[in-house]
UniProtKB/TrEMBL annotation:
Belongs to the FMN-dependent alpha-hydroxy acid dehydrogenase family. It comes from the Bacteria. This is Alpha-hydroxy acid oxidase. Residues 5-388 form the FMN hydroxy acid dehydrogenase domain. Keywords: Flavoprotein, FMN, Oxidoreductase. Glyoxylate binds at Y31, Y136, R171, H283, R286. FMN binds at residues 84-86, 113, 134, 162, 259, 281, 314-318, 337-338. The active site is at H283 (proton acceptor). Its EC number is 1.-.-.-.
Length: 388
């Protein structure tokens, strides 16, 4: 009851962020919220949208607005997909299930991370909505092959290879808080956790939270996990290159997505290997700090490969206007990570629903105000570029 009321008092994604900050132990909030090094890219991702203004077209009948589009062979009801994010059950006990359900309800893709806390099979059973599985390639290639097979058998529609994590980014907030799975017990972290009794209650009374897709390896002792940073450096394969991406694609019959593309050259290579889509992404500013904002790279990439491959943009999207600017610059769709995670942490499934509702309502209203009735009306003519 109180949660619903608090969610209804959240009028934008930043309000959900503030509520999430209250609900979560600081280490977990910092893990979601933070970026790498000085967090330059984290900030730039969102602030770079301000360099573009949106134009309004007058006297257009906007009584009916159509937000639907087709991405990866599936018709979706609005042009925003839910990005893969690891460890969602740490932020709310319903975790991935809650997000997958709300993505399906809103008629869009859910993406399940390799490092999820709900298994491929459980998410497959949970939702009939469009879904994609995201792979991190482990040194144990059989495990990667197994992931692809499991995603196929569980009815996933698309496979996504994330290519911007050859090593774990330097996330200093996590180093300071000692963010680990399970949480590291220090006087400070115990106090922090105790100040969040609702979180503790759910943490202690739900099934064990583990990295569900690799848990069998960890139990066998071949996947040892003390903290994420160490897990990545021990288990992820830093030799992965384009030939491996081709190999991964060859294991999968359906749409194949390469996530973490930031240059024209890499976008062209993704076209060459026959990928269906790229996600123009810098991992939400969590990997290479000083990487440009994704919206800055989009026009060049759209010029070079637009029309040959679908372009999905993520990193920094907090507003409907951000989505519209990306579409006007040539993206086919966008993805959100933190926007729905703040909702999840703030209020579980209703919190995710609120995040989705806020963004979707903003996009619809902004289209009315711009005089755009459908997404194909959102073109470069809708933009005014301010070179500051
Ligand atoms: C807490 C968290 C966990 C993430 N885990 C993954 C992951 O497991 N796999 C992946 O490809 N990307 C992961 N990402 C990156 C997102 O897929 C996405 O690229 C990023 O969140 C977009 O930026 P935004 O959060 O500003 O929307 C994660 C992001 C966050 C915030
Ligand atoms: C190995 C990193 C864990 C998931 C992730 O991609 C992220 O936190 O950004």
């Amino acid at each position: 009851m109180i949660h619903q009321w608090q969610l209804s008092r959240c009028f934008n994604i930043d309000d959900l962020r503030k509520l999430a900050k209250k609900r979560l132990p600081a280490s977990l909030f910092g893990y979601i919220d933070g970026g790498s090094d000085d967090e330059y890219t984290l900030r730039a991702n969102t602030s770079a949208f301000d360099r573009y203004s949106l134009m309004q077209k007058a006297l257009v009948d906007v009584s009916e607005i159509d937000l639907s589009t087709t991405v990866l062979g599936k018709k979706i009801d609005w042009p925003v997909l839910c990005a893969p994010t690891g460890m969602s059950r740490m932020f709310h006990h319903e975790g991935e299930r809650a997000v997958a359900r709300e993505a399906a309800k809103s008629g869009t893709f859910y993406s399940l991370s390799t490092l999820s806390t709900t298994s491929i099979e459980d998410v497959g059973r949970e939702t009939d909505g469009p879904k994609m599985f995201q792979v991190y390639v482990h040194k144990d290639r059989e495990l990667s092959r197994e992931f692809v097979q499991r995603a196929k058998s569980s009815g996933f529609d698309a496979l996504c290879l994330t290519v911007d994590l050859p090593a774990h980014g330097n996330r200093e907030r996590d180093l300071r808080t000692g963010m680990t799975l399970p949480p590291k017990l220090t006087a400070k972290s115990v106090l922090d956790v105790l100040l969040h009794p609702a979180w503790v209650y759910h943490y202690l009374t739900t099934d064990a939270i583990e990295l569900a897709n690799v848990a069998h390896k960890i139990r066998e002792g071949s996947g040892e996990v003390s903290n994420l940073l160490q897990y990545v450096s021990k288990q992820f394969d830093p030799t992965v290159c384009w030939e491996d991406a081709e190999w991964m694609k060859s294991l999968w019959d359906g749409p194949f997505v390469v996530k973490g593309i930031m240059s024209v050259e890499d976008a062209r290579r993704a076209v060459d290997i026959g990928a269906s889509a790229i996600v123009i992404s810098n991992h939400g500013g969590r990997q290479l700090d000083s990487s440009p904002a994704t919206i800055e790279m989009l026009p060049k990439i759209a010029d070079a490969v637009g029309g040959q491959i679908e372009l999905i943009l993520d990193s920094g999207i907090r507003r409907g206007t951000h989505v519209l600017k990306a579409l006007a610059l040539g993206a086919d769709a966008c993805m959100i990570g933190r926007s729905y995670l703040y909702g999840l942490a703030a209020g579980g499934q209703p919190g995710v629903a609120r995040a989705i509702q806020l963004l979707r309502t903003e996009i619809e209203l902004d289209m009315k105000l711009m005089g755009c009735r459908q997404l194909s009306d959102v073109t470069a003519d809708c933009l005014y570029f301010r070179d500051q």
